[in-house]
Amino acid sequence: MSSEHAIDRSIAAAADAVGTVWPLHSFVTANPLAGFEDRPFHEAVADAESVLGGRGYPTAAVFEQALESGAIDPDLLRGRLAEHGYETDLEASLDRLADNESVVPSPEKATATERVDAVVTKWLAAFLDQGRAEWPMPDRESGFYAAFCAMAPHDSDIPDAAAIDALPSEPTAAIRSMLTDRAVGSWQDVFEFHLAALPGWTGLIKQRAADNGSWQSAYPITLAGYLAVRLALADGFDAPIVPPEEFTTSQPHGDDVPLEEVWLSAWEETYRTELVTAIADDSGSTRADAAAAERPDAQLVFCIDTRSEIIRRHIESTGAYETHGYAGFFGIPMRYEGYDSDVSVDACPPILEAQHHITDQPAEAAAGERSRYDRWHAVTETATHAMKSLKSNAATAFSFVESAGMGYAAALAVRTIAPSWFANALQKAGNRGPDDHEFCAPSIEHEHDHAPDELPTGLTLDERVEYAATAFELMGIEQFARVVAFVGHASETANNPFESSLDCGACAGNPGGPNARVLAAICNDEAVQAALADRGIEIPDDTVFVAGEHTTTTDEVTLYTDSVPETHADDIAELRADLSTARERAAGERAGDMGADPSTGVRETERRAADWAETRPEWGLAGNAGFVIGPRALTAGLDLDGRAFLHSYDWRTDSDGSALEAILAGPMVVTQWINTQYYFSTVDNAAYGSGSKVTHNPVGNIGVYQGNGGDLMTGLPLQSTMAADNEPYHQPLRLSTIVHAPVDRVTDILADHPEVAELLDNGWLSLTVIDPQQDGRALQYEKELAWTAIDEEPEPIESINRPQPPAAADD
């Protein structure tokens, strides 16, 4: 084996110790301990603690609060403690938890290593900048390693610039030259040590190199190049090259389950038991039979996002509406480019690769609206560019401030004192031109001419038919209303570096409206409908498909209905009126969760969305704990408190199990990523989150620092998970998945997907099956494809709510 191949292989293995990090403008939730998922959860958090310095379980105080609030069943907890040989006196057990608890220190760093960190992060920030810097770093097109070698000899912070100048031209050769006295078998440990030193930057480099998008193509960076630079700096600063003895990603473990794991499992089982009991109630089948008898007034398909559970519940209460849950990219793995955008985004989960390039194309019949739009936006863009130039140009910056300072001060004052009024004024100014949805439509027609290395534009007829059929079959839709709306979701927030974390995770941190528009266009296609009829999916002549977008911050639902025929005008008007009513109720519920008066819900949520000083515009997916895969009838009428992902599925329309297979191998894995990021950001925000927004310092349009430098913060801010200091709003529980399907079908799917079974075997999430072929009997997954029947039948409940925290504080 060549030394170059050995280095590449060792780097790839070492990088597993660090989770992938996405840039802030396309924030994707991910498990920060993804590289440890090949081992049991309690072993993984212990190993990660030694490498990353993060705590893996809630504190004793959090467990005590959960016990006192009723979130943990004390009898269940005592039974689990006894099973594992622990003291069953709960006060004594809490005392032991507190005694075991200590603030997990970050791995000790020598002063020289801190100097290495300071220099390397300075160069990483300059190289990885995505358009924020006015004066970008030279030579970036040659790659990070080459650009650094060319520029670093002029850096006075580096003690031996001549050594940098003498480095080999290839990074692997440079690494090899610095490891000449190290055995090949020790290389992985060395690489793990240095990659884990700055896990935020390392995770971003991993993502950048794997994605190979436009920024990576223009300015490439690799883990090998980063390591070569870091090792060269470590050598120059006389910092440790080899990790200390206590540093290892694989600690020896005994067979004992830690006490914290027992408490956490009991907390999760308490929540899961209530949820399973509610879903397994016989009323579910009764509701399903009743619902099937009448044609709904309209059907709305939302993302499976937990925030959709709230608005769906309130929409259904306003009339004869049927709602469904489907992953928010609506099954179309596409790269999307807006009409006047100069960039494209991959609007699909990171677990998939984009397969189609979709652009918004103006309709010929709307040439007038297009011209007005172009003229207005040309004016606004020119003004924006001129203002930016005046503010940033060294020759004009001071004079600009003197002449415009008072005007800016007045605007800042209004924006701070009356954020809603200011936002409405800006919106009115921006809306003087037509909206691009008024004259554009997504380009779904397939174009054959494209370069071999480019994605095909549009979709073939067969592809369009397959996407539509998959959606209907997967959700179990057999009867169509006059109006079927695919509703994506986005957020609305001001001055928030984490705004994309509130958009659609299934669309890689982008709004879901474009995906909804594509699927609606596909389903309105007459050729698609004819092909679907041949497959047994009959769409009535009077059914119209529309797209929409749910703003989760304010619960406003916008419908795109420009192409809807006049015959359906009354249907749309009634739907809009009921959506407005549902919004008032849902916004009131959200406002109450944030400590505000529910009666002021719409006004309060609009204020939070517009207020540039608001650290908590919405709760996002905080509180997520469950994932229900089954027909809506199972959960209709239940208040799930915005804590459950809801994916529609009807086992009767999935004869070969392929639809369920796609859900378990796709959306269930992605929701587990979301769940674990919220979990770890809650239990140790310093290590796995990003601290308070108040002290965030955005860098390069890619991430945030705490302070003026250092590592990129990798997870969610405190305001996304905490109601107040030491008061978690998010209950840190691992995901409880519940599937309504024959258990044999689920077992076969897990057997075919060992990577999914491994997550279950190692305790990263749980799985319960409610088997309709066994009269709704519930079975709990144990290990190695084995199940245990849940025989007890507690009294059914009508609400699955979290204990109410104190009024949220803007910390």
Q: Number of helical segments?
A: 29
Category from helices, strands and their pairing = alpha/beta
Largest sheet: spatial strand order: 11-10-16-17-18-19
Largest sheet: 6 strands, mixed
Radius of gyration: 27 Å
Q: In angstroms, what separates the terminal alpha carbons? A: 55 Å
- Helix fraction, binned, reads 40-55%
What share of the residues does DSSP label as strand, in percent? 5-15%
| Principal-axis shape | globular
Pick out the low-confidence regions.
793-799, 805-811
Average pLDDT reading: 88
Protein described:
The protein is globular, with a radius of gyration of 27 Å. It is built from 29 helices and 19 strands. The model is unreliable at 793-799 and 805-811 (pLDDT under 50). By secondary structure, it is an alpha/beta fold. Among the domains are: 3-30 and 108-236, no CATH class; 312-363 and 446-618, no CATH class; 370-430, no CATH class. The strands form 5 sheets. The chain has a 6-stranded mixed beta sheet, sandwiched between helices. Strands 2-1-7-8-9 form a 5-stranded mixed beta sheet. Helix 1 crosses helix 9 (171-178) and helix 16 crosses helix 23 (569-593). A hairpin with a 5-residue loop joins strand 17 (765-771) and strand 18. Helix content is 44%, strand content 11%.
